[in-house]
Amino acid sequence: MTTPIVDFVKNYADKEHARFHMPGHKGQPFLGCEKLDITEIPGADVLYMSDGIIEESEQNATSLFKTFKTCYSTEGSSHLIRAMIGALAAVTAPRKPLILSARNAHKSFIYACACADAHVKWLYPSKFKHLCCCKITSNDIADALADSSTKPDAIYITSPDYLGNITDIRSISALCEKNNILLLVDNAHGAYLNFLEKPCHPIHLGADVCADSAHKSLPVLTGGAYLHFSRKCPQSYMSCVLNMLRVYASTSPSYLTLQSLDRCNKYIEDNYHRKLKDTVNVINNTKQAIKSLGFDVADTEPLKIVIDISNIPYDIFSEGLCKYNVSPEMCDSFYAVFMITPENTSKDFDCLLAAMRHISVNLPQHATKKSEENIIMPSAHETPLSIRQAIFSRHETVTIEKSVGRICASPAISCPPAIPIVASGEIITYSDYLIMKKYSIHFIDTVLID
What are phi and psi of 399, to 5 degrees? Predict the structure, then answer.
């Protein structure tokens, strides 16, 4: 498979041009990568108006993912989510779009809705087990549709979620098609799902549009992302999304990230399926080994190991990881999340298992599982202002102790996982205060009422 962006930049760098153009480092090695860091010089094409090397590279990605069209982003899936939601506002104008969304949406969705002035009706599971997890079924959505006097323009789902849970996209897609509703999926953690032995990428399970953070599960530089369109996506909506990519994008895309996305096409073609299969086998064996030590390992998407640590003193667990230089993606008082790719080495797995053995030996004999009553999760809120009204209002920053009863301006978020505890426009409750305290959030922006 060709790598047109990589080849162009390498050829340009090798010729050692006198660079009288941006960037200001002029290719000199301050970090070491500058020689390959260019701007939109002649021949380098233009992201979001591509007709040259970027277009060729995106066509390669389209072929690999087997989509109708795949586009690149160098600003992460957050940029793509803004485009997806912004396009909804364009196709529904002058009416404001209505979206049914699972509550565990990333903060980028909140900000996208503020920019587009979209109205959101939140979907809650029958029982929350964690801020990151919102297991919504097609029956939940069917009930929400039956209870709503207005048909939504889109269903918005995060799958896989931060804890590795995968939503039944196929059944939700069937419901959306029956009701002529768009299905939009934040698949930030699942770019690799298309290349499993049994592919389960959302775009092939019925999503109309899907955003993937390539850098989360593929060997791509931070900020590299894909936007996928299915063959059933309405042409009018797709055209609006492509336009919104330009509206929300920086005019200075990272050519380092573009090269990384371009090079990843060849990586995927060159036996990635086998590498992925072998890695999944190693992960499954590692999960079994961790289970044999007495730990509760969740059933998750293939490239995550998620351990329930609710019955383990947090300091013992974190100190065990530190002792063996193991860095998890996330670790709170309930779950530890380890994200894995074929680029993890056997030494990495050895360190993880050594840490888990150390933790197991040092656990108290009679650990007490935290009561589920202490797992305080979001619930329906009073919403006197829209998301847009709240975010664009005058606001003041207050301590979380003083925030109860006030209207949230910017969402209260711990990153990772960057999932709002309370959304913009909602009245902050005492339960919200307890969750913010749990996640060491000390201040929150609230709407300033004159």
Answer: -70, 155
Half-sphere exposure of 413 (CA within 13 A, CB side): 19
HSE, CB side, 13 Å, CA atoms: give it for residue 11. Answer: 8
Phi, psi (degrees; rounded to nearest 5) at 155 = -105, 135
185 Cβ contact list (under 8 Å, min separation 6):
156, 157, 158, 159, 169, 202, 203, 207, 209, 210, 211
Q: What are the two backbone dihedrals, phi and then psi, of residue 98, each rounded to the nearest 5 degrees? A: -115, 130
Percent share of the chain, pLDDT over 90: 86
End-to-end CA distance of the chain: 61
Instruction: Give the CA distances from residue 217 to residues 18, 212, 257, 360, in Å, rounded to whole numbers and listed in that order.
Output: 37, 9, 15, 29
Name beta bridge partners: 305: 338
Q: Tens digits of per-residue pLDDT, 62-87?
A: 999 999 999 999 999 999 999 999 99
Distance CA 54, CA 49 (A): 9
Specify whether the CB–CB gap between 436 and 400 falls below 8 A.
yes
Question: Could you give the CA distance from residue 62 to residue 265 in angstroms, rounded to a whole number?
Answer: 10
Please tell me the predicted confidence (pLDDT) of residue 435.
86
Quote the distance between the C-alpha of residue 62 and its chain's center: 20
Place of tokens 């999760």: 377
Q: How many residues can be counted in the chain?
A: 450
Buried b (16+ CB within 10 A) or exposed e, 381-401: bebebbbbbbbebebeebebe
404-428: pLDDT as tens digits: 999 999 987 766 678 888 999 999 9
What is 365-408 written as a DSSP string? TT--PPPGGG---------SS-HHHHHTS-EEEEEGGGTTTSBB
What phi, psi does 212 have (nearest 5°)? -115, 130
Contact call for residues 193 and 187 (beta carbons, < 8 A): yes
In this structure, are residues 447 and 406 in contact, taking their beta carbons and an 8 Å threshold? yes
Torsion angle defined by CA atoms of residues 136, 138, 140 and 145, in that order, rounded to the nearest 10 degrees: 130
Retrieve residue 81's tokens.
């989510």
Return the amino acid letter for 363: L
Taken in order of first residue, the domains within the chain and their CATH numbers are: 4-269 (3.40.640.10), 272-362 (3.90.1150.150), 376-447 (3.90.100.10)
Q: Cβ(215)–Cβ(264) under 8 Å?
A: no
Q: Is 287 left (phi over 0), alpha (psi -120 to 50) or beta?
A: alpha
